[in-house]
Amino acid sequence: MAFATVEDLATHLQKDLSAAETATAQQALDIAHSEIRAIVGQYIERVTSETVLLDPPWCDPLVLPEAPVISITSLKVGTTTLSYPNHYRWNREGFVWRRYGSWGQEPKSIELVYTHGITSADREWSALKSICLDYAARMFANPTGVQQESIGSYSITWARNSEQLSLEQEETDILRRMFGRVLVG
Q1: CA-closest candidate to residue 5, choices 116, 120, 117
Q2: Co-location of 110 and 128 in the same domain
Q3: Residue ranges, the chain, pLDDT below 50
Q4: How many domains does the chain divide into?
Q5: Do 21 and 28 touch, CB atoms closer than 8 A?
Q6: Is residue 54 part of a domain?
Q7: Residue 165's domain spans which residues?
Q8: Which residues pair with residue 74 across a beta bridge?
């Protein structure tokens, strides 16, 4: 599921889109969506009952590959099934702590089934949608990143800075606060 639709972008731009502009808008949204995922380093959208095999951490806690964590259905270390809350505890940010014992040492010896990510009903979704729309709008309005154009005495400046075709620092900061795992920025 995309964070925003072409219709959302048209409304954001306050513009009726032609067929050609609709294709350009979809491409801008696809790029924005992919860039947000890449920067956060996560899939983001809700995934139910995903099974992952993890290497044991060198020390507590075990860091899950995706957050926010909604639930953990099962957790096995080697052949031992751990029960919640007797053997481990976890939080929404994707950290799991053993109450006692170790995670072991064998690679891929931890099997975990969990539900993670957000849906359009979650409070974080509107911020993601806003970031996606702002980024896509910048790409749609100025796909080549031209900063200034002049014809005779007429001049127009398009971009605030040379980073127009990437997420702005403020947007990256919002993603960092939301997911705590922004890979760049």
Answers
A1: 120
A2: no
A3: 161-163, 182-185
A4: 2
A5: no
A6: yes
A7: 6-43+120-179
A8: 113
